[in-house]
From TrEMBL:
InterPro entries listed in its UniProt record: AAA+_ATPase, ABC_transporter-like_ATP-bd, ABC_transporter-like_CS, ABC_transporter_ATP-bind, P-loop_NTPase
UniProt protein name: ABC transporter ATP-binding protein
Cell membrane as UniProt keyword: yes
Family recorded in the similarity comment: Belongs to the ABC transporter superfamily.
């Protein structure tokens, strides 16, 4: 298991993206007819803001992330980055999924370097790979192959591969979903620390109410499919946050109420 203490090299502050989601609705065409998935979503992600999306399984969270990433066009409405329409994927918007999807025959370092290759960055700039590895605390593991890593380390490699590009927006779809609960708690803090240092805008999808509230400044609660916004929880607590705080418990209660769940347990 890797030591969770992060090194702190100097990092250029990245200008976080301003993401505008205006009246976005979306459906999928199925053999039996259209399947409505998103219903008039309005959301403004300010530069450098950390927002989490919370909602029932299958409500449309990943679909919304895919639209923001530019992986598919929205059925209706508009999505913009810094005022310009999002029409295709762009290296300034990086997606991290639940599965780290590393190349098994490439070392940790070479997997991270792929993030740069995807942008055609010159070999001379590969020092950025070392910096990205340091940012996720993996400098000492650069030569290992993916099968030699724990789940948490593999996900750190995926994060380094994303961060090597200094993204303006980091889109995360259940990035910690496959980790054991202790590693997950550690990585929640690490991700927040990475975000605080680099100041990219962050959009996180999670099923975990505590995770959303612990990490994000703002939590958007979605309804059952087709997803519409049923509430928004602002967490003003400064970072680093205390997990057991009374304010977090209060916000959790409110989140569960918005999700239609019994909040007494
Ligand atoms: N490419 C697709 N074609 C048809 N239907 C799709 C497609 N992608 C997603 N869906 C459907 O759209 C709905 C929303 O899916 P989505 O993955 O966005 O939900 P989610 O909230 O991320 O789910 P979960 O929390 O379980 O990961 C689901 O009913 C899913 O079956």
């Amino acid at each position: 298991m890797v030591n969770a203490v992060l090194e702190a090299p100097r990092v250029e502050p990245a200008a976080g993206a301003h993401i505008g989601i205006q009246k976005v609705s979306h459906h999928f065409d199925l053999p039996d007819g259209p399947l409505p998935v998103l219903d008039a979503i309005d959301l403004d992600l300010k530069p450098g803001e950390f927002v989490a999306l919370l909602g029932p399984s299958g409500c449309g969270k990943s679909t919304l992330l895919r639209l923001v990433a530019g992986l598919e066009p929205a059925g209706r409405g508009t999505l913009t980055q810094d005022g310009k329409p999002i029409t295709r994927p762009d290296p300034s918007r990086i997606v991290v999924f639940q599965d780290p999807t590393l190349y098994p025959w490439r070392s940790v370092r070479d997997n991270v370097a792929l993030g740069l290759q995807a942008r055609g960055v010159l070999a001379a700039q590969r020092g950025r790979v070392d910096e990205a590895l340091a940012r996720v605390g993996l400098s000492a593991y650069a030569k290992l192959l993916p099968h030699q890593l724990s789940g948490g380390m593999a996900q750190r490699v995926a994060l380094a591969r994303a961060l090597v590009n200094d993204p303006a927006l980091l889109v995360m779809d259940e990035p910690l979903g496959k980790l054991d609960s202790l590693t997950r708690l550690t990585m929640q803090s690490e991700l927040v620390a990475l975000w605080q240092r680099a100041r990219f805008s962050a959009l996180l999808v999670t099923h975990d109410v505590e995770e959303a509230l612990f990490m994000a400044q703002r939590v958007i609660v979605l309804s059952e499919r087709p997803a519409r916004i049923v509430g928004e929880l602002v967490n003003p607590l400064p970072y680093p946050r205390q997990r057991g705080s009374a304010q977090l418990a209060e916000l959790r209660h409110e989140a569960l109420r918005l999700l239609g769940l019994d909040a007494t347990w």
